[in-house]
Amino acid sequence: MTQQQRTAIVTGGARGIGAATAVRLAADGHKVAVLDLEESAAKATVEAIEGAGGTAAAFGANVADSAAVEQAVGAVAERLGAPTILVNNAGITKDNLLFKMSEDDWDAVMGVHLRGSFLMTRAVQKHMVDAAWGRVVNLSSTSALGNRGQANYSAAKAGLQGFTKTLAIELGKFGITANCIAPGFIASEMTKATAERLGVDWEDFKTARAKEIPVQRPGVVEDIANTVSFFTDERSSFVSGQVIYVAGGPKT
Ligand SMILES: NC(=O)c1ccc[n+]([C@@H]2O[C@H](COP(=O)([O-])OP(=O)(O)OC[C@H]3O[C@@H](n4cnc5c(N)ncnc54)[C@H](O)[C@@H]3O)[C@@H](O)[C@H]2O)c1
Fold it and tell me: What global pTM score does this model have?
């Protein structure tokens, strides 16, 4: 089955998993709105897509800001057509042990991951309902199962799994699926910053983490982009409300 061209929004598309996902969805034939905090930061991803013959545009918005989200989704619809694929990928970490974790660090992480995914999905779902077709993919994490120093992040990532299942239940009758990807260790600026914070050399950090992974390598951003491509495929319409751990081995 050939893919019908859709308009996709990838939040946090300026770099890392989001950038690779935007590139992949464009290669799948879709028009891609690359959304990040600053429009200028999303331009490199847009240029990569255009350089490969695809269609994309950059949009600036903080996903935790409802007015900015409404404005950006409206601008995407106007410029690229009604969005019917949404990848809620934007994310931050503010790690600390519980007794040292500030309320600001708790709220910031909840704001981007949970409030951000809620606001984006609420703004985009009307376009999906109108089209009687939609695909929502939310980025969870293996940290949803618990991770030292990440009380805020693990709670947000576990919350996204419940959010996804509820979206699947509410929106299924409109031809919309919602699924969740829970990556394990993926080499990106986010995990590089973690190594820096721990004072560990990046190459040593990757080698040590790879030893703990059954397939014996760190994940790469394309591993996640490939899974997004599966969930957004026309042929995946009976797959909904699922959480897939993409972690080089099983997670429970
Ligand atoms: N890298 C990993 O190992 C890993 C593992 C599990 C889950 N994840 C999740 O995957 C997603 C992407 O991770 P990554 O490693 O590519 O991260 P990254 O830090 O490299 O990129 C995140 C992007 O999100 C953008 N962003 C942050 N806050 C935003 C906001 N409020 N509004 C709009 N954009 C915002 C950033 O500017 C950045 O471009 C995140 O949700 C992350 O939690 C990553």
Answer: 0.98
